[in-house]
Amino acid sequence: METVPHDGNIFTLSDVIRETSYEIHKYLRSGFTEKIYENALAHRLRKRGIRVEQQQCVRVFDEDGTLLGLLRTDILIERILICEIKSCGALLDAHTAQLLGYLRATKIQHGLLINFGGPKLDIRKYILT
């Protein structure tokens, strides 16, 4: 497997994640838990030389700086993109809201919502501006 150049191009990185997710879905199909797909994606991306962090804690603050609580992102890639992994029949608006909340809390602009649970792989890219 080739390594991916770290040129900072978010679109190149997103394409690699999409391709890798497709390969995983083709191999595993649906029927596994989110954790299995998360581990598979993290493993395959690391093999390609991409920096991947799993289950990163994100602190959420109120407007006055009070800590409201912690969230855990599924996968943080190269510290510039959050991947939220799902294994369900279809993505819901609540899944999109969850990813957008993570993007706002981290101030990261790019996110991918990936559902491995349906008959077809469903990947949606979000950009917080």
Structure description:
- The chain has 129 residues and is α+β, with helices and mostly antiparallel strands.
- It has one domain: Alpha-Beta Complex (Lambda Exonuclease, Chain A), CATH 3.90.320.
- Helix content is 36%, strand content 30%.
- The protein is built from 3 helices and 5 strands.
- The chain has a 5-stranded mixed β-sheet, with helices on both faces.
- The radius of gyration is 15 Å and the shape is globular.
- The N and C termini lie far apart (34 Å).
In short, what is this structure?
With 129 residues, this protein is of the alpha+beta class.
* Low-pLDDT segments: none
Number of domains: 1
Please state the structural category: alpha+beta
Q: Per the principal axes of the C-alpha atoms, what is the gross shape?
A: globular
Beta-strand segment tally: 5
> Under the CATH scheme, which architecture would be assigned?
Alpha-Beta Complex
Binned, the helix content reads 25-40%
Alpha-carbon distance between the two ends: 34 Å
The largest pleated sheet is described as: 5 strands, mixed
Query: What's the multimeric state?
Result: single chain
- What would the average pLDDT be, to the nearest integer? 93
Strand content: 25-35%
